[in-house]
Amino acid sequence: MRKKMELAVLLLFLAALVMLSKNLQKLVSSGNVTAKNKIIVLDSGHGGDDPGKIGVNQAKEKDVNLEIARKIKKRLEKKGWEVVMTRERDEMLGDPKAGNKKIHDMKARVEIINKTMPQAAVSIHQNSYQDEQIRGAQVFYYSHSEEGKRMAEQMQKALLTVDETNTRQAKANDTYYLLKRTEVPTIIVECGFLSNPEEAAKLTDTKYQKKMADAITKGIIACVEN
């Protein structure tokens, strides 16, 4: 009788372990267990009615941003990361009937990031300046975020694999809405200057975009795993 009781207890214990394992797996897959989640949010700047910068070659920043972000997404997913995109097509976010579409768009991006609570958020952009000679990728972080600073410096270093002559440094900023409002470490990667003829040509070239995506992917992994 005693052996039967012990066997019954053992079976109940094993059943409980199986149920616990299944529930834990569900929690992880649903995003409720965030500490160990390998989640990154990629934000493709601009979109829809907001083209962003217009290159000297007439390239629209919104299109370049999305192409590079898509390539980064593929690379991260191959390495086992879950990637959430703030947009996956040419569109503005938020209420399309809103009076100020830009503000609603930015709020929607921040909401996606804060609801997802990823390990990090990376916003992809392109730069522009009146002087066509200015060039080089640069990373921005929120002035009051030490983790953001560390990530930006790590990413800036990773971008040297694309252009080792780039002397730009990671730069603090306290005005960018996305950097101020997000609740997780967030950086903005300006991949280059569409106002520079040489960089504009590169940034619209698929091979160069892949090279940039490789560098940013390595930078993201270095940021969150180190």
Automatic annotation (TrEMBL):
Residues 110-221 form the MurNAc-LAA domain. The keyword Hydrolase applies. It comes from the Bacteria. GO terms for biological process: peptidoglycan catabolic process. The keyword Transmembrane helix does not apply. One of its GO terms (molecular function) is N-acetylmuramoyl-L-alanine amidase activity. Pfam families: Amidase_3 (PF01520). SUPFAM superfamilies: Zn-dependent exopeptidases. SMART domains: Ami_3. Keywords: Hydrolase. InterPro entries: MurNAc-LAA_cat, N-acetylmuramoyl_amidase_3. GO terms for cellular component: outer membrane-bounded periplasmic space. This is N-acetylmuramoyl-L-alanine amidase.
